[in-house]
Amino acid sequence: MSSTVKLPIDVTAIQAVLPHRYPFLLVDRVVELEPNKRVLAYKNVTVNEPFFNGHFPGHPVMPGVLVVEALAQAGGLLTQLASGGSADDRLFYLVKIDNARFSRMVVPGDRLELEVVLKRTIRNMAIYSGIARVDGEQAACADIVCAEVAA
């Protein structure tokens, strides 16, 4: 599939590759792809996100764990798009997060830029390094390990 991928990749095409759905699909668009190396994707953060109702009333902030989840989903897109996989035949589960750092709050109106690099693969595991940015400023980063299982 990697040789036929046409950028940008919209949410409909993302849903064909990832099993996540509203409210937990946290990637809206893929704008850059270097198969088996790197992906750059976006999440448009709106005030309508369900987590803002309770995090925090009067001062909405995207939970850091969801920023890391968005990075993991972008990593899943990198792997799936490079291999031509779909949500029907392979699933990746988050198994480990290391070196997570949160540098800035993500709030309604932000466009979260998700840059993920594939560091290496070991059997059924993929190791990613991700940086989430808003307006070019780092909001969070983490090293992420995901394991593949049959769907």
From TrEMBL:
Keywords for this protein: Cytoplasm, Lipid A biosynthesis, Lipid biosynthesis, Lipid metabolism, Lyase
Keyword Lyase: yes
Any one Gene Ontology cellular component term annotated for this protein: cytoplasm
EC number: 4.2.1.59
InterPro entries: FabA_FabZ, FabZ, HotDog_dom_sf
GO molecular-function terms, A-Z: (3R)-hydroxyacyl-[acyl-carrier-protein] dehydratase activity
Active site: 55
Presence of the UniProt keyword Ion transport in the record: no
Top-level enzyme category: lyase
Reaction equation(s) it catalyzes: a (3R)-hydroxyacyl-[ACP] = a (2E)-enoyl-[ACP] + H2O
One annotated GO biological process: fatty acid biosynthetic process
Major site of localization recorded for this protein: cytoplasm
PANTHER family named in the record: 3-HYDROXYACYL-[ACYL-CARRIER-PROTEIN] DEHYDRATASE
Function: Involved in unsaturated fatty acids biosynthesis. Catalyzes the dehydration of short chain beta-hydroxyacyl-ACPs and long chain saturated and unsaturated beta-hydroxyacyl-ACPs.
UniProt cross-references to HAMAP family, sorted A to Z: FabZ (MF_00406)
Family indicated by similarity: Belongs to the thioester dehydratase family. FabZ subfamily.
Protein known as: 3-hydroxyacyl-[acyl-carrier-protein] dehydratase FabZ
Taxonomic source organism: Marilutibacter maris
Lineage: Bacteria, Pseudomonadati, Pseudomonadota, Gammaproteobacteria, Lysobacterales
